[in-house]
Amino acid sequence: MRLALSLGRRGLGNCWPNPAVGCVLVHPDEHEDRVIGRGWTRPGGRPHGEVVALAQAGDARGATAYVTLEPCAHHGQTPPCAQALIDAGVARVVVALEDPDPRVNGGGIAMLRAAGIEVETGVLRDEAARDHAGFLNRITEGRPFVTLKLANSFDGRIATATGESQWITGPEARRYVHALRARHDAVMVGGGTAREDDPSLTVRGLGVTRQPVRVVLSRHLDLPLDGQLARTAREVPVWLCHSGRADPALVSAWQGLGAETLEAGVAQGQLDPVSVLQALGEKGLTRVFCEGGGGLAASLLNAGLVDELIGFTAGVALGAEGRPSLAAMGVDHLAEAPRFSLLETRGLGGDVLHRWIR
């Protein structure tokens, strides 16, 4: 199952709205079990991991299948994976986690058992739940899993008073950020970041074949029509979230450039992050990587929408006049502040990486 989980992670960021499922087929040999097939969900969400593993195995009769999520039981663009396992003649299926999707929700396991296949569930359940957190979030909460990245100086600043920020962290940290982008369905920033930095928000230097969707939150849609996002909107998807009061001419202009526009609600004078994430969930996104700026990060934290927090701390101090990584959050008492549990901390080049979960 650990091998199946590691295979499934290869699909993260590539197979939304489907889950990134890993599957390993093991055949009982005379002396020891032998792996005869392995697979993971392919880009675009199909074929599913079970189908890939079965195709590699060729003959899976009598084998045990280790699957990180309950095999699907419904007919979509492909037949049910539960039926594929039945037709292949596997003898046993070990499932890490049940699928809460109403179209499955125990149906896959029931199909397998009805066909006389032995089914065991719950193996490495917690690890599988972490890997599938994005898919589970979208099914149960209607929104994607949100990772917030903050890259700061030692004293929590993201730029000097004049706005200079390239580069606070070193090349190793920046390369790691590209790897994080690649493992998410979308990269999200606020309108201020898009205007000031003119970012491309693509994954570079890693040879990826499917770029994440680039999401920008801009209430008035007042973004540069000649920037990198505008110039490349037909090559890599750009989704712009705006309010209902955005200038229709700007909406048309961005659509003409190839961007997709999504209307969202407004709360306290800014785009409502709950409404935005619900809209992204409805479009199928399961994992969103937020890279700023401070206003967007603060609004997500205040709304309790940050599921994972990834920080990079550099050994440089910028002082009180530097720009803070978070906008004002209105926290008067420590008990009101969002708190996270530490998952990992380690050195990364000349910087420190720390990961936290909600």
What does this structure look like?
The protein has 358 residues and is of the alpha/beta class. 28% of the residues lie in helices and 24% in strands. It contains 12 helices and 18 strands. Strands 11-10-9-8-14-6-15-18-17 form a 9-stranded mixed beta sheet. It has a 5-stranded mixed beta sheet with strand order 2-1-3-4-5. Strand 8, helix 8 and strand 9 form a beta-alpha-beta unit. Helix 3 packs parallel to helix 4. The chain is globular, with a radius of gyration of 22 Å. The chain starts with a helix and ends with a strand.
Q: What's the SSE pattern?
A: HEEHEHEHEHHEEHEHEHEHEEEHEHEEEE
Number of DSSP strand runs: 18
Number of helices: 12
How far is the first residue's CA from the last residue's CA?
Answer: 26 Å
**What would the average pLDDT be, to the nearest integer?**
93
- State the low-pLDDT regions, or none: none
Structural class: alpha/beta
- Helix content percent band: 25-40%
